[in-house]
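Field reference: sequence -> structure
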Amino acid sequence: MPIAGFNLGKYSRVEARAGQVQVEAYAAAGVERSFPKGTTDALATQPVTPFELARPPQAVRVATPPPSPARNAQAVANMSARSVEFFASRFGPFPYTSLALTQMPGKVSQGWPSLIFLSSFSFLTPEEKSQLHMDFVTRILSDNVIAHETAHQWWGDLVAWKSYRDQWLSEALANYSSLMLLESDSPTQFRTVMEKYREDLLAKNKEGSQLAEAGPVTFGVRLNSSHFPGGYEAISYGRGTWLFHMLRYMMRDAERKRREHSGSVTDAQADAPFFHALSKVRDRFQEKSINTRELLRVFEEELPPSLWYEGKPSLDWFYQGWVNGTALPRLNLRSVKFTEKPGGSVVTGTISQGDAPKDLVTPVPIYAVLPGKTVLLGRVFADGPETSFHLSAPAGTRKVVLDPYKTLLTRPR
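Structure field:
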């Protein structure tokens, strides 16, 4: 282990299991001054007379016990155990024999090898968090901290990063791993979080500069500055998470197209190349450090020919334009024409790409809109202000759309 730590406190202990892995949670009765005090306002619910129906409901004080992390420790252990099972099935076995989650005062959490320092706020129930007046997205992300820190057992602890320029790999991979678990439970909440990351990158500071302009993920902690105080977190987590989302869906779409003639394709089958690449990363770099180029080289081994830009099995274009860039391009369709052919149609048109460097390469998914469904026609590499395309489509196609499922980090059209 590159690092080791400890935590001391008057804790209650609970246990859960993920296969052969023992997951323990240690929590105290309180310690947070900013926790809700345990007494809430509620609307009176006692029967009323017809005359009282016209009166506004009266708030009454309802006595509730103050939050106790120890009281919710079992739910924390269970969530982490579930995360271990989810990640192990996709990235390979849990790296250690056991995992301890220990309550730590404050809002910051950290995942160390076999030991997670978990914020007291992660031990709150949804009802207790609502008393802190968290907005919807903040509550989703707060609930996701347990899975995020558990994912660090693989990304950050077992596989470390080489330099500050590669630190984003640890945070973005752990974050995206936890969000894939969220996606399996609630696709709607997953999309809400991803859209919030997009909005944050487009938010402007007091000088009118968008946060995305702070720099690429490879700037690491240098992203924080007086102009962008929250630059590191927003870009390493937000943009970094989007980069892995783009890679995953590029590979997923390519696998679906490859298998489309062999019947229906499950999500697990379509995701296989992406998870196979991450399993390779885990196997080759366990107990070692990895840099961004090395990670992309592993993904290149899983790239199908349909994702070979200019006929080369390389992700250099992705590294230069997306990992080492800051763009959020704006995409539009122009001059679309449909031509009927025996057994199908041919669609031609132009993709315009604005608000981006001229050499940015964007793998744009194009879908045909048919009655009751959309059909993936393919991905077109938009590699300049204007890119023409020529795709086969099902017979009767009269409408096509770009990226309807929002798999690209682009600006709203």
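Note: Residues 330-402 form one domain.
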